[in-house]
């Protein structure tokens, strides 16, 4: 067998379709003696039997190791500059009480972006001082809740919000801890970044001067924050994108923000104590992705921050970062059961046709919306066994009434994959459960955490009763 004409350029024909390539899987996922996929020694068939499919399986050891790796690497790199780094795990990537506890255990803080996420943080017992709250449209109730919980930082996104928060806090005799989210004109995605002055997006305060007033929304917000008795201005924040491999975008954003801090020092005589450089570190979803180790990113960023501060004669602010995907993404795989399998002939660019195998699984866009939302690529393996059959060009699709309901667009799977086999899709820790839905009245899957050879439920799956629970009409 050879490569399919339908394969995208990045996808190579596998030497062994049963192999688990390095960066993509949690560290304790292996093939057992009988060829079955195992996590921390537990065969996936045992997990499927106990918890059903689809099932999110998260490696607790891998999560903790990745969280600690970010914290330790950035602390080490920034130690001599600003005494260390505060790492805020971006809760929006995947959050539940158990995850919040792991985050806190490993010495990280937690970044939230809604009242609901704050409720989880509270339930997990995270102290307010270790919480941040983001969002471009926080409600008064959310701002009040943040003040109730004495949040370490509220990341203010606009001038109207700054005024609103200042008034709420002052009215309660409080001062809100505030970071200002700026748009530094750097947009990064994977291997490129775009540097602009103006940004056409809903988040943040622009650093580019307004042609009519001559001053930037960012500069106006700093002046307003410093003058507001309800606001304690801690520093600046930026988040330039997601799934980024190229460090140049982070470095340029850091330089622009530090230059702005130097300007604030000059104009207001204030050296803001904190700078948050956001999240967005890329992970490997397929063989095409080449993420960099946290230590390498940390060193590169520390070098830029250190040199820029020296150049600008600025005290190095306390640095914080907000990784989400890079911590939780690789820790998790989704276990599905294969159902209907069919092969279709597809026209090739050369004018011929080639077969594509459609492998339907018992979940889909309701548990992983990223392929539909972002054209995201994933990979998959046959998990319940190995196969010596040739690999064929396959597409793993869900069971939803939607032709775009694709889980893995392009993958070589053994030609004997059949109804009843288990398939595993790695890299589903971030933005999968978090974005899950009940489309087609399909119940959201449970999440199971595995550690030291034992599995336990951390989020139970929905039942049919759950699906009907909020339908208020009396049954017939
Ligand atoms: C989404 C987001 C993050 C986390 O992004 P990842 O790509 O998951 O690292 C961090 N900060 C802010 C403000 C975000 O919106």
TrEMBL record:
<feature type="domain" description="Orn/DAP/Arg decarboxylase 2 N-terminal">
    <location>
        <begin position="67"/>
        <end position="328"/>
    </location>
</feature>
<keyword id="KW-0456">Lyase</keyword>
<feature type="binding site">
    <location>
        <position position="325"/>
    </location>
    <ligand>
        <name>substrate</name>
    </ligand>
</feature>
<dbReference type="InterPro" id="IPR002986">
    <property type="entry name" value="DAP_deCOOHase_LysA"/>
</dbReference>
<dbReference type="Pfam" id="PF00278">
    <property type="entry name" value="Orn_DAP_Arg_deC"/>
</dbReference>
<dbReference type="Pfam" id="PF02784">
    <property type="entry name" value="Orn_Arg_deC_N"/>
</dbReference>
<feature type="binding site">
    <location>
        <position position="370"/>
    </location>
    <ligand>
        <name>substrate</name>
    </ligand>
</feature>
<feature type="binding site">
    <location>
        <position position="374"/>
    </location>
    <ligand>
        <name>substrate</name>
    </ligand>
</feature>
<dbReference type="GO" id="GO:0008836">
    <property type="term" value="F:diaminopimelate decarboxylase activity"/>
</dbReference>
<feature type="domain" description="Orn/DAP/Arg decarboxylase 2 C-terminal">
    <location>
        <begin position="352"/>
        <end position="429"/>
    </location>
</feature>
<keyword id="KW-0028">Amino-acid biosynthesis</keyword>
<feature type="modified residue" description="N6-(pyridoxal phosphate)lysine">
    <location>
        <position position="92"/>
    </location>
</feature>
<dbReference type="InterPro" id="IPR029066">
    <property type="entry name" value="PLP-binding_barrel"/>
</dbReference>
<comment type="similarity">
    <text>Belongs to the Orn/Lys/Arg decarboxylase class-II family. LysA subfamily.</text>
</comment>
<feature type="binding site">
    <location>
        <position position="431"/>
    </location>
    <ligand>
        <name>substrate</name>
    </ligand>
</feature>
<dbReference type="InterPro" id="IPR000183">
    <property type="entry name" value="Orn/DAP/Arg_de-COase"/>
</dbReference>
<comment type="function">
    <text>Specifically catalyzes the decarboxylation of meso-diaminopimelate (meso-DAP) to L-lysine.</text>
</comment>
<dbReference type="InterPro" id="IPR009006">
    <property type="entry name" value="Ala_racemase/Decarboxylase_C"/>
</dbReference>
<feature type="binding site">
    <location>
        <position position="280"/>
    </location>
    <ligand>
        <name>pyridoxal 5'-phosphate</name>
    </ligand>
</feature>
<feature type="binding site">
    <location>
        <position position="431"/>
    </location>
    <ligand>
        <name>pyridoxal 5'-phosphate</name>
    </ligand>
</feature>
<dbReference type="InterPro" id="IPR022643">
    <property type="entry name" value="De-COase2_C"/>
</dbReference>
<dbReference type="InterPro" id="IPR022644">
    <property type="entry name" value="De-COase2_N"/>
</dbReference>
<keyword id="KW-0210">Decarboxylase</keyword>
<comment type="pathway">
    <text>Amino-acid biosynthesis; L-lysine biosynthesis via DAP pathway; L-lysine from DL-2,6-diaminopimelate: step 1/1.</text>
</comment>
<keyword id="KW-0663">Pyridoxal phosphate</keyword>
<feature type="binding site">
    <location>
        <position position="402"/>
    </location>
    <ligand>
        <name>substrate</name>
    </ligand>
</feature>
<dbReference type="InterPro" id="IPR022653">
    <property type="entry name" value="De-COase2_pyr-phos_BS"/>
</dbReference>
<feature type="binding site">
    <location>
        <begin position="322"/>
        <end position="325"/>
    </location>
    <ligand>
        <name>pyridoxal 5'-phosphate</name>
    </ligand>
</feature>
<keyword id="KW-0457">Lysine biosynthesis</keyword>
<dbReference type="InterPro" id="IPR022657">
    <property type="entry name" value="De-COase2_CS"/>
</dbReference>
<protein>
    <recommendedName>
        <fullName>Diaminopimelate decarboxylase</fullName>
        <ecNumber>4.1.1.20</ecNumber>
    </recommendedName>
</protein>
<comment type="subunit">
    <text>Homodimer.</text>
</comment>
């Amino acid at each position: 067998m050879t490569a399919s004409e339908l394969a995208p350029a990045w996808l190579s024909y596998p030497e062994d379709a049963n192999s688990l390539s390095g960066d993509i899987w949690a560290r304790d996922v292996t093939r057992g003696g009988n060829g079955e996929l195992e996590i921390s020694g537990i065969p996936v068939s045992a997990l499927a039997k106990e918890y059903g499919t689809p099932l999110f399986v998260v490696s607790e050891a891998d999560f903790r190791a990745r969280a600690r790796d970010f914290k330790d690497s950035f602390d080490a790199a920034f130690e001599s500059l600003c005494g260390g780094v505060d790492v805020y795990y971006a809760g929006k990537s995947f959050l539940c009480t158990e995850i919040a506890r792991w985050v806190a255990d490993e010495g990280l803080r937690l970044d939230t972006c809604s009242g609901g996420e704050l409720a989880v943080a509270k339930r997990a017992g995270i102290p307010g001082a270790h919480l941040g709250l983001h969002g471009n449209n926080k409600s008064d109730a959310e701002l009040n809740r943040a003040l109730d919980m004495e949040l370490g930082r509220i990341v203010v996104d606009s001038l109207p919000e700054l005024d609103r928060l200042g008034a709420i806090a002052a009215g309660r005799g409080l001062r809100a801890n505030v970071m200002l989210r700026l748009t530094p004109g750097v947009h990064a995605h994977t291997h490129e970044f775009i540097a602009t002055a103006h940004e056409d997006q809903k988040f943040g305060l622009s650093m580019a001067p307004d042609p009519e007033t001559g001053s930037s929304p960012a500069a106006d917000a700093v002046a307003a924050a410093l003058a507001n008795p309800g606001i304690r201005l801690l520093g600046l924040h930026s988040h330039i994108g997601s799934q980024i491999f190229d460090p140049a975008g982070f470095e340029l954003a850091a330089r622009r923000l530090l230059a702005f801090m130097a300007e604030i020092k000059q104009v207001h005589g204030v050296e803001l104590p904190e700078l948050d450089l956001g999240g967005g570190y890329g992970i490997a979803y397929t063989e095409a992705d080449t993420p960099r180790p946290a230590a390498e990113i940390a060193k590169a960023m520390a070098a830029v921050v250190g040199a820029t501060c020296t150049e600008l004669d600025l005290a190095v602010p306390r640095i914080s970062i907000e990784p989400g995907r890079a911590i939780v993404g690789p820790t998790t795989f989704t276990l599905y059961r294969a159902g209907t399998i069919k092969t279709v002939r597809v026209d090739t660019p050369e004018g011929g046709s080639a077969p594509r195998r459609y492998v339907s699984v018992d979940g889909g866009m309701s548990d992983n919306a990223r392929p539909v939302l972002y054209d995201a690529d994933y990979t998959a393996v046959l998990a319940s066994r190995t196969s010596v059959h040739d690999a064929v060009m396959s597409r793993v699709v869900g069971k939803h009434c939607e032709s775009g309901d694709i889980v893995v667009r392009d993958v070589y799977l053994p030609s004997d994959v059949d109804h009843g086999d288990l398939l595993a899709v790695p890299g589903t820790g971030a933005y999968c459960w978090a974005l899950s839905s009940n489309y087609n009245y399909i119940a959201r899957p449970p999440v199971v955490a595995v550690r030291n050879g034992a599995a336990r439920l951390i989020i139970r799956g929905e039942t049919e009763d759950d699906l009907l629970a909020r339908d208020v009409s009396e049954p017939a």
